[in-house]
From TrEMBL, chain A:
InterPro entries: BOL2 (IPR045115), BolA (IPR002634), BolA-like_sf (IPR036065). GO terms for cellular component: cytosol; nucleus. One of its GO terms (molecular function) is 2 iron, 2 sulfur cluster binding. This is BolA-like protein 2. Belongs to the BolA/IbaG family. One of its GO terms (biological process) is protein maturation.
UniProtKB/TrEMBL annotation, chain B:
SUPFAM superfamilies: Thioredoxin-like (SSF52833). Residues 52-116 form the Glutaredoxin domain. InterPro entries: Glutaredoxin (IPR002109), GRX_PICOT-like (IPR033658), Monothiol_GRX-rel (IPR004480), Thioredoxin-like_sf (IPR036249). GO terms for molecular function: 2 iron, 2 sulfur cluster binding; metal ion binding. It comes from Holothuria leucospilota. CDD domains: GRX_PICOT_like. Keywords: 2Fe-2S, Iron, Iron-sulfur, Metal-binding, Redox-active center. Gene3D superfamilies: Glutaredoxin. One of its GO terms (cellular component) is mitochondrial matrix. This is Glutaredoxin-related protein 5, mitochondrial. The keyword Metal-binding applies. It comes from the Eukaryota.
Length: 86, 151
């Protein structure tokens, strides 16, 4: 089954208790290339590497068949701050 | 991010043109994988050998993937031209081995002084928020961007 943005988003929301997720399928629908903005309370106080590891662990199965996955990981506070700016 | 990508890709384009077919062929053939190149011991040796080590697709002069290219170009912007680089496309054992070693699913992977720093996203973020300058300083490298800002 092809990997979809919806599937990835659902898993991230459930497992990482994300308050906000934006997923962009950059593959044109074949499910091989995604970029993600992931906002979760669970990132609070955690360094960047650890946040990325949490996402990698959450999507371990899916990442095996995704060719390219780039992400931004933010805490809700940081996300709000960025929203305010733009 | 977009700006950087466009800039780096055009740089890459020129490099590709500059490289002769023959050189390419030699490169493809020159680095056959050995049976244990993906072993923990061998990877540990590789990351201990140089202060900065990049496991990437292609070589710094000619990255074979946009993500690997971004990492090389970021290092260049900071004036880092010399670093250990290992082409996983030439070595399937290393390609699998490094993913397990770092517990990281993607290539490129960057190591500073034997410690895993991250992949492209992390390098990009550390580049943008200035942390990369501090990390380089820990290795005794003064980022070229510091001098550029003064001028």
């Amino acid at each position: 089954m092809a990997i979809t943005s919806e599937g990835l988003e659902k898993k991230l929301r459930e497992e990482l208790e994300c308050t906000h997720v934006e997923l962009v399928d950059e593959s044109g629908g074949c499910g091989a290339k995604f970029s993600a903005l992931i906002v979760s309370n669970k990132f609070e106080g955690k360094p960047l590497l650890q946040r990325h590891r949490m996402v990698n662990a959450c999507l371990a199965e899916e990442l095996k068949s995704i060719h390219a996955f780039s992400m931004k990981t933010l805490t809700p506070a940081k996300w709000e701050e960025q929203q305010g700016k733009s | 991010m977009n700006f950087l990508c466009r800039k780096t890709f055009s740089t890459l384009g020129r490099r590709v043109v500059a490289q002769s077919q023959q050189q390419l062929w030699v490169r493809c053939m020159s680095n056959y994988s050995t049976a244990n190149s993906g072993s923990k011991e061998h990877i540990q040796e590789l990351i201990n050998k140089d202060d900065i080590v990049v496991f990437m697709k292609g070589v710094p002069e000619q990255p074979m993937c946009g993500f690997s290219n971004v990492v090389v170009q970021i290092l260049r912007m900071h004036g880092v031209e010399k670093f250990g680089s290992h082409n996983v496309l030439d070595d399937d054992s290393l390609r699998q081995g490094i993913k397990e070693f770092s517990n990281w699913p993607t290539i490129p992977q960057v190591y500073f002084k034997g410690e895993f720093l991250g992949g492209t996203d992390i390098m990009m973020e550390m580049h943008q928020n200035g942390e990369l300058i501090d990390e380089l300083k820990k290795l005794g490298i003064r980022s070229a961007l510091l001098d550029e800002e003064k001028e």
